[in-house]
Structures are given as C-alpha cells and as structure tokens.
Amino acid sequence: MDSSQTTKMYPWKEIIPRMEEIRAEATDQFIAAWKNAQSRRTHDFTWHETMGYVIVKRDDAARRMVLSPRGPELLTEMGLVFDPGSVSTHPQDPGAADWDIAAAGPAAEAAETRWRPAHARFALRCEPPYLRAFSLEHLALQTTQCLRERRRILKSRLDPDEMLLSISQFPLLGTGTYIDHQGAPNGPLLRSQLLPDICLNSQPPFTLEIGGIVDRRGVVPYTGVPVFRDTNTVWPFIDEDLPADPYKGGILAQPCESNRDSACVMGNSTVVTATPSAAAAPADLNANGLPSDALWDARLNSQPPPLSRPLLLEPPSNKNCVLLDSPLFGIGSGGVLRVTLCAADLDEARSLHDQLAPISAIMAALTAATPIVKGHLVNRDCYWDVQCSTVDDRSAQERGIVPLTTAKGTLLKSRYGSIDMYLGPDETRADPAFRRVYNDCHFTYDKESFWKMKEDHGIDSLLALHVSRLFVRDIHYASENMLGAGDAGSAMSGQEHFKRFLGCSRQNICLYPPNKCTSSGWEVEFMSLEAQLTDAENAAFITFIVLLSRVIISYRLNLYLPISLMDQNMARSQRVNAAGEQLFFFRRDVFGGRDGKSNGSGSISKRANLAPSRNIKSTSTGAERGKRGMNCSGVYTKAEYVELSVDEILNGSEAFGVTGILNIIFTYLSTMRLEYDVEQALRRQLLLVKRRASGKLCTLATWMRNFVRTHPEYQNDSVVSQSINYDMLRAMNDIEEGRVAAPELLG
Description:
Elements: E1 9-11, H1 12-15, H2 19-38, E2 46-59, E3 64-67, H3 71-77, H4 101-111, E4 114-117, E5 123-127, E6 132-133, H5 136-141, H6 143-155, E7 162-165, H7 204-217, E8 223-226, E9 269-272, H8 293-300, E10 321-324, E11 337-342, H9 346-366, E12 372-373, E13 376-377, H10 384-390, E14 416-417, E15 443-446, H11 447-456, H12 461-469, E16 477-479, H13 496-503, E17 506-507, E18 509-512, E19 523-526, H14 535-555, H15 563-573, H16 578-581, E20 584-587, E21 604-605, H17 622-628, E22 641-644, H18 646-651, H19 661-670, H20 676-694, H21 700-709, H22 722-736, H23 743-746
Parallel strand pairs: 14-17, 21-22
Antiparallel strand pairs: 1-16, 2-3, 2-5, 2-6, 2-7, 2-11, 4-5, 8-10, 9-15, 11-19, 12-13, 18-19, 20-22
C-alpha cells in the first residue's frame, strides 16, 4: 500500500480535550444527513456484500500451517492506494455511472472489486464496485460466480505455498508458531503477550484503534473462552499462557495524563430503562409485567439515577478457559460475511433494522464456524461473543466496577454487541405491530445530543435515542481534517465525525445514514453471519438475507420480540451445535399484530427441555403438543412468543402453528413469475439453508469439531495440534476448490 499519504492521525489520549467538540460536530452531521434525506427522492432498493479472507501459508514437509502477513503487500500489487485519513470505502450508486453489474458479468465486476485492508496483516476485505440493483436473476445466476471470480483474482497473486480461506478465525492464533516471521510478543503496538506486532497492520487507523481500546479501558481486555471438556481433558483446565490477573505480565496500559476515566463528562447523559422499578405502580404495568407506554415516556423525560444493579465484570478466571489478551483477536483478524441493504427510504430502513434483528441469532447459529480458539476445542461454536469481549473498551466506571464519577453512565454492553433498542416507526406514521415496551433493556444515551436532535430539529424520539446512544462512547482516533488542522476539502464526506462514532458501536444490525459521496440512501447492515468455507455457501446466505428483506417489506412481517429475549437468543446461538440442539424465542405468528391487536396473550411459552422438536419424545401427539403445549396447559395457542428450534423457525411446524420463514420466501418467489432456470437456481440456493436448518447438513463448526475428534492423532484432550490443524485446513482448502466432496456439509 502507498505509504506516501501524509494525513496526520491523533490517538485517543490526544483528542480527549476535544471529544465533546467532536461529539457536537458528529451530531450536526447526522442532522444534516437526516434533513437532506427528507427532500430526496425515494431510492430503488440496492444491496452489497462484504467478504473477508485469511491468507494461510503451508509447510508440507513439517505438516504445519501458519498465517501469511502479506496482506498489505498483495493490496499494493493490486494498485490500492490507501489514505489513512479517509472514511472507509463504499460501493458507488450504479445510477451515478454508466454501469450495469448484471450486464457486465462476474468477471467484469470482480476486476473492479474494491479491495481494502483489515486490522490484521494476514486478512483482507472486499466489496463490489457498485451497489447491486435488486435482480432475482442476478441473485440466482451470478452471485456465486462473482464471489468465485473475486477469489480467483486474489488467489492468482498468492505464492505457490499460500492458500486463501474464508474462515472466521485461524484455529491456532495465539499459541505456538502461527504466523510467518513471528517474532517476539509484548511489542509496543499490540502490548500482547500472545500476539507479536507483525500480526497488526501498521497503518495508523488500525494501530490507533487497537491502542485506543487498550488505553481507554486502562488494560488490555482479557477474554475467557470456555474449553470443551473431552474425555482426557485436564480438569480443571488452566491456561498457563497468561496470568489470571490482567494487571500482571507487562500489559497494563500507561495511565492517561488527563486523570479522567474517559473523555465523558457527567451531567450530559441519562439512562433509559423499560424495566419497572420497585416504585412503579401496578397500574403502570401491562399484562406482561412491562411498563406501559405512558410510564416509558415519563422515564424518557426524567433524569433517573445510574443503574441500581450495575454489571460487575471482573477479569475472567483462567480456570477452564483459554485466555485472549488483545483486541486483534476480535477485530479484523478473520474472514467476514456481511450483507448491507440500501433501503428505499428511512421508513423502510427502520423496518428492516427492527425485523432483521430477531433473526440475527438464528443466522449466527446456522452459520456457526468457530469451534477452535487458540489451539483448543472450545465449548461454543460461534465467535460473536468472543469478538464483542475482545474489543470491549469500557472503563471501570462504565462496567460498574467502581462508582461513577466522570463517566457518562454504566454501559451494559461492549461497543460490539446486539442492538440496544428497536427504532420503531416515525411518530407521524403509526405501526400497530410496534410497542415501545419491546425496548425492555437498560441503555445510556447522551442527553445533550438527544434533545438537540429532538427539540431543535424535529427528529423523532426513537431515532434520536438510537443515535445519541453512540455518543456515550469515545472515538479512538481522529484525523487532522476532523480537528480542523488539515485541508478541509481532502477526502471529507461531511460525515467523518459521525462515522467514527458508528465504528465504535458495531451491532448485530447497524443503521447508516445516506452517504453523501456515493449518493446511496439509508442502509441496514446484517452483521451476525459467520463467513462460510465455500462461495456457494456464502452466496446462499446472501441470497437468503436479500430475499428475506424483500419479504419483510412486501408481506409486512412482524418479527418483533422484546430485546431481552433477543439477547437470550444471541447467547444461545453461541453454544455447541445450537442449530440442532437449542431453542430460540420467536414470534409464533409473524403475520399478526398489524391490526393493532396482539396476536396472543403476550405471554412466553417455554418448553420442558432444550431440544429440537424432532428429538422431543412425548406421549402426546404433535397435534396435541401444538394445541395444548408441552405442559398440557394450553399456553401455545395463546402465547405470543414460543421457544422454537431453528428448523421450526425457518421450515415451519404444523404442530406449533408456525409458518416458517423459508416457506414464506418460497411463496414470494412463486408470485414473481420467474424464468424456470432463475427460480430453480434460487430454490437450490435456499435448499442449502433449508437442509442445514433441518439438520440434514451440518454447520462448518460441527464439521471442524468432528474432523478434530476423529483425527487419529487427537488425544481426546481438547488440544488441536499443528499436524491436526494442517490436515484440517488442507481438507478445507480441497473442499473449497472442489477436489474433495463434503456431503455432510454441502450435500
């Protein structure tokens, strides 16, 4: 990459005195974007995907795989000129240029791919050059080919002993020898006892973000990942790579000279909660025990005290866990799969944001691909919670460990995590399906920016709350342009301040305002998918998300459930074989509630045991269970939310009166009058999702776990050795290239 760019970047410690100024400018930028969007025409629906890859180097003689830190070198070869001070690249609006992706074909599109670096030197990211117009023919016939052609271009630049894998995390990262030219840990950039600085991209945005996370928290975040207990696993398991105390071992960050807990100032924030307090009158609570809309409004306009029961997060114990000690374990170090949906207008974007959020846990379970962390089988299949923990920059005050003195408030979640609230409809456009009591969890927002948006500029309460949540956190670095020290016209989108705050709060569903440079509209990004091994799998899940977004809008689906239940679903989705063995809270009738009446009692029906319905043994018939419920109490016919397996949520269940998301999508396709080859191609893509949900195909995490546990060198001790890892990654590469069949994974 071109290092001649001279944009000066300032770290977190140096911008603390100007943080409130940056917040104010970010607020103004969002207000300007919101106002500009009010007068713009409705956009056609477009979308794009973001893919990430990991470069792996193999040593066949030693039967060893290591990461290759040649990512920046490859991007330079492909002509990327990277400006550290610019806002991240974004696909252009195809209407702004004479470009037709569908007509151009996969090869032409791949040749124009927007490649970009990641935080790790061994990882790369890419996006299409232009936003894709919604075309079922393109989804069916070109999506897979586009991904394959893009991978082919990148592979052509690799050395003969290198491989390109779309995996969420390298299995041995952090243990033994795992990267070419590894060097010693405890470098000045990462300050990690596990990862040397060669792992980190040396460009300022990446080094400053990692450093900002560490500095703001006061210590490198420790993350404990529970070990999978096999028959010969030493128990209790002790990770001896790191001391149990994160303040030992030389990783304590230097204290901030400002002597402040963070850049936050008390008095400009408040906590919103939909959890009833002890003083709440019974009349203020609805049938679910949740506060009424009137009580919710009263609390919004009050100044409640900090949380009465703050979240106490002590450093994780190294007992029965593998320990990670760097944000790089969770940010920019593995393959990614994200789908961004460019809505017609803000109303559609709000609907997509809310309705896709409850499905995010289901898709996390279905795409689970990370059963190995730091050379050990772990007791989870997804990497979502690990990622969220490793980049957690909350100070001790914000985590509730010490009393609040200078921080804006107690923050219950990391800067990465599930959404805090639904957006609901604009206050001028009623949607009977939405009830504000669904926002039943604590969150803190910046009071000053909230009232500026709401009272001074007329932005509705829910959208203003959503945006002002961002401003209780700090950004980790700023360019000279942001601070007014550089050329104001250089690469500025007019939204750089706001986008920095967006980058500090990445959630399972993200909302982005219209992009001034690319002319795109309001966007919603689906974040909880894990990258899959093959292009066909990735294309199938891309197709599912894009089609689901169209079904949500066309059929006005109602997938709302309380945020607290969605958080429980996200936790369950991380567990081993969650796609086959876990139950998830889900709305029983996804068509009900739009008439302003509840389609149930509002109660929650729980099953007697956590197992998918196909494995439940009961003396009653399926029809009786659907009619009376597992406990024969008649709850299922009235319950608004029920516990369902992934199979029942996606494929439906007659016994429980559930239509099934895939069945709705198939119905949608049947009404589109498609060409035979297009419809069949779409159905083949969705068949992979359908069969994985039903358990006929396994997740990549299950495949990897089974490979390790059946390997002849495996000692049933949870340890994944270099040779086992070598054989597994070679097999995975052979499957991706089509040299080896994997019917249990791909059918």
